[in-house]
Amino acid sequence: MKFKNITMFSLLLLFFISLIIVIEDSFAQRKSTSRGYKTYKSAKAIDGDTYKYKGKSYRIQGYNAPEIGQPGSRQATKNLQKRLSSFEYEYKPVAKDVYGRTIVKERKKK
User: Fold this and answer.
1) Which of the residues 40, 66, 79, 98 has the least number of beta carbons within 10 Å of its own beta carbon?
2) Taking the mean position of all CA atoms in its chain, how far away is CA 51?
3) Which of 45, 43, 48, 46 is nearest to 72 (CA)?
4) Mean pLDDT by 10 residues, the chain (110 residues)
């Protein structure tokens, strides 16, 4: 009789652990945005078209902002930082460039 109770308890425990894992995975998937797009609120703008996130460099596809030291570079960097921090834009990796940066496609959230 004791063995049967232990087995039943073990099965119930396994069921609840599995249920928790499934629920947690479901919530984790909802946090990410659709079709591979993500937001990078804690990212740091390097210049007007490049940012760093968790030690990796990303460059926004289709942007050509002034390089550091060129006229307009400070404003372009500030504008990118605002976009990154706003949660209004999201980014999807699409390629790597010759400098090892990940090229990302930017879109405004719907």
Assistant:
1) 98
2) 13
3) 48
4) 66 72 54 68 90 93 89 93 88 92 89
Q: Which amino acid is at 77?
A: T
pLDDT of residue 104: 94
Secondary structure (DSSP) of 32-93:
S-GGG-B--TT-EESSSSEEEETTEEEEETT--PPPTTSTTHHHHHHHHHHHHHHSSEEEEE
Q: Residue 106's closest CA among 94, 93, 90, 85?
A: 90
